[in-house]
Design a protein that fits this description.
Layout: H1 4-17, H2 22-34, H3 38-54, H4 59-68, H5 91-104, H6 107-120, H7 125-138, H8 141-154, H9 159-171, H10 175-188, H11 193-203, H12 206-213, H13 223-230, H14 235-241, H15 247-267, H16 271-284, H17 290-304
C-alpha cells in the first residue's frame, strides 16, 4: 500500500516480541531500502544473515524457510528494485545487501556480496546482472559486458540484460552494438518505455520512437517524456508531470525529467541548457538510476568539448 513507516513500525514490534527471527529483519531491510535508508537496510540484511547462521536448524532449513516465503509480496522486490530470484542459503540476503551497498555508492562492497551470492549459486542471473551494473558504474566495462553476456546465456529472454548491455556499449561508443541490444530489449518487452527512449538517444531517429510509442501505456510515467521526444509536450509540462505526492517517486521522476529534457536540448543544439540539466540530474538522481550514470557520461563529454 506504500505506507512504509507503518510497515516498519509493525516490523519493529515483531522484533521486540521475537528479536531472533531472521526473516523479519530481511523484510524490514526491504522496506528501509524502499525508503532510501540504505544504511539501515544494510544493517537489517546483515542481522538477518547473522541470526540465520546462529539458527541451530542449519542452512538447509534456512533455505527452505526463505523459499517457503517466496510468494509473499515483501519478497517481490530487492533493494535496487530488481526481482529476487531464490538462490541457496544466504544468497538472497547477500544480493539484497549488495543492492543496498550499490544504492549507497559503495560498489566494492556490493560486488563482494554479489561475488559471494554467485559462489553459492553460479546460475544466479540476478546477482550476475547486478554485479555487471556495479562494474559498469565503476567504469570497468569489460567485466560488465562479461557479466551481461553470462546473464544473457542463462536467460536469453531477459530484456533487462540487453538494456543494461546496450548502455555499456553506448558509453564505449559501440553504437551499432548498442542499437542491436536495444532492439532486442524492445522486442522482448515492448511495453517498457526506457529502451525506446534510449534507442532514440542512440539513433537520433524519432520516426522509430513514434512507431514504438504505439506499444506503450500513454497514461503512465514516463509517457510525458515520450511525448517530449515526439514534440507533443514541452519541457515545462514534463517537469510538471514529474510531481508526485510520494516523495521517493517524485525524486525519481524529477531526476528522469531533467535527464531526458537535457538529452532533448542536446539534440536541438542547446548545449548550455543541456549542461545545466545534466548537472541537476547528476546531483539529484539516486546512484542506482541509469540516468545518474548517463548524466555523468554526458557531462564529461560536454565539458571535454568546450
Amino acid at each position: 500500500m506504500g505506507e512504509l513507516d507503518r510497515a516498519i513500525a509493525d516490523y519493529d514490534q515483531i522484533i521486540e516480541l521475537n528479536p531472533r527471527g531472521p526473516s523479519v529483519y530481511f523484510y524490514r531491510g526491504i522496506v528501509n531500502a524502499r525508503k532510501d535508508d540504505h544504511d539501515r537496510a544494510v544493517a537489517d540484511y546483515t542481522q538477518a544473515m547473522q541470526l540465520a547462521h546462529q539458527d541451530q536448524r542449519g542452512s538447509g532449513d534456512r533455505k527452505a524457510q526463505l523459499q517457503g516465503q517466496a510468494d509473499d509480496p515483501a519478497y517481490a522486490s530487492s533493494a535496487d528494485g530488481q526481482s529476487i530470484a531464490l538462490a541457496s542459503g544466504d544468497g538472497i540476503a547477500l544480493r539484497a545487501r549488495g543492492g543496498a551497498y550499490a544504492a549507497k555508492g559503495d560498489f566494492d562492497r556490493a560486488i563482494a556480496d554479489y561475488d559471494e551470492a554467485i559462489r553459492l549459486n553460479p546460475r544466479d542471473k540476478e546477482a550476475i546482472s547486478a554485479r555487471g551494473n556495479a562494474y559498469k558504474t565503476k567504469g570497468d566495462f569489460d567485466r560488465a559486458i562479461a557479466d551481461y553476456d553470462q546473464a544473457a546465456q542463462l536467460d536469453a529472454r531477459d530484456a533487462r540484460v540487453y538494456f543494461h548491455r546496450a548502455r555499456v556499449y553506448w558509453q564505449m561508443a559501440s553504437l551499432a552494438k548498442s542499437l542491436t541490444d536495444l532492439d532486442q530489449a524492445i522486442q522482448l518487452n515492448p511495453k517498457n518505455a526506457y529502451p525506446v527512449l534510449w534507442r532514440e538517444i542512440v539513433a537520433r531517429r524519432s520516426d522509430q520512437l513514434s512507431e514504438a510509442a504505439k506499444q506503450l501505456d500513454a497514461t503512465k510515467w514516463p509517457a510525458p517524456i515520450i511525448n517530449l521526444f515526439l514534440g507533443t509536450m514541452t519541457p515545462e509540462q514534463v517537469r510538471s508531470a514529474a510531481d508526485d505526492a510520494d516523495p521517493v517517486k517524485k525524486k525519481g521522476q524529477v531526476c528522469e525529467a531533467n535527464f531526458y529534457v537535457a538529452e532533448r536540448a542536446l539534440q536541438s543544439g542547446a548545449k548550455e541548457e543541456a549542461l545545466k540539466l545534466f548537472d541537476l540530474a547528476a546531483a539529484d538522481c539516486p546512484k542506482t538510476f541509469i540516468e545518474k550514470q548517463a548524466a555523468d557520461v554526458e557531462l564529461g563529454l560536454l565539458r571535454a568539448s568546450r
